[in-house]
Amino acid sequence: MSTPAGHDDSLFGRRETVEQVEEGRDLAPKFDDRGLIPCVTTDVHTGEVLMVAVMNPEALAKSIETGEAHYWSRSRQVLWHKGATSGLVQRIVEMRIDDDQDCVWLRVEVAGGASCHVGYRSCFYRRVPVGAERRAGAGLEFVEREKAFDPKAVYGDAPNPTQL
Amino acid sequence: MSTPAGHDDSLFGRRETVEQVEEGRDLAPKFDDRGLIPCVTTDVHTGEVLMVAVMNPEALAKSIETGEAHYWSRSRQVLWHKGATSGLVQRIVEMRIDDDQDCVWLRVEVAGGASCHVGYRSCFYRRVPVGAERRAGAGLEFVEREKAFDPKAVYGDAPNPTQL
Asked: Could you tell me if B28 and B21 are in contact, meaning their C-beta atoms sit under 8 angstroms apart?
């Protein structure tokens, strides 16, 4: 059934028992008290985690229907078709859901190869030293040496989504 | 400086500018309004996403100090040293932080090879059909055929963390 939000509500089943949610074949996602579900997105070729974002029901439904990643933008409070501005569309090769169905994993192919608004391939371009290395006082280390694109050329004067 | 929470507060820097947070070498994580930061954990050998959980400052500090994954258990409301009950400890091979430092990625080696309370290797053991396959009416598909361990043998009568 189509809803005022514009997505097919029959995509999502009801959560009735723990066994159904954990061991069943119904997609019965749990959105949190803000109506959102977190989503991890990895590069299908390298396995690298590209980004972690959230989806509302409409974004999850659009992702399923179109095979392209849609998120909910918390900074802009809009449905966010990734790549609509930058051209860096994420084609979904595989979508997975976790045991209690409160988290989504997308394995994607990225047009242009980059996903991070700062210009790097992955948002996770810095390593945090742990254990002995951290005790020796090491700071964050950049694991990507060069940006994949120039964010000013791609995003122009759009506001930076990073908040302090 | 050691705090009443028992972790070294000097591990975390202050968030002063967007440039420092995005392009600097200081670890200056952003915890949300509940004091939590999400964490994606992948298998360092297969690249598979094993789980997505949250950390409070103490869990993040303990993970950095010990090199073993610690989370905050929302269902039990305690610091959660992963594997303390099951033996399935996660040794951190690499920790990364994202652009705006509000998400952590752990690449781990898992003792026993499994991370999911249902008994599977990964919590993401089911695939969600998208696009044409979904339109053809396909349900969730199990990508792991067999459980890696018997959850009843490992967890006994501990309450199931899945909530409807």
From this structure: yes
pTM for the model stands at: 0.89
Question: Contact at 8 Å (CB) between B121 and B115?
Answer: yes
B144 Cα to chain A: minimum distance (Å): 12
Low-confidence ranges of chain B (pLDDT < 50): 1-4
Q: Which of B18, B117, B131 sits opposite A160 (nearest CB)?
A: B18
Is A23–B118 a contact, with Cβ atoms under 8 angstroms apart? Answer: yes
Q: Is A162 within 8 Å of B49 when comparing Cβ atoms?
A: no
Instruction: Say which of A18, A38, A130 has its CB closest to residue B162.
Output: A18
By C-alpha distance, which of B155, B160, B164 is closest to B75? Answer: B160
DSSP A106: E
Count of Cβ atoms closer than 10 Å to residue B21 Cβ: 23
Is there a contact between A69 and A41 (Cβ–Cβ < 8 Å)? yes
CB A143 within 8 A of CB A116: no
**Cβ <8 Å between A49 and B96:** yes
Neighbours of A56 (CB within 10 A): 19
Percentage of chain A beyond pLDDT 70 is: 95
Segment A116-121 mean pLDDT? 87
- Mean pLDDT, chain A, integer: 90
Neighbours of A128 (CB within 10 A): 26
| Sign for the pseudo-dihedral over CA of A105, A107, A111, A117 | positive
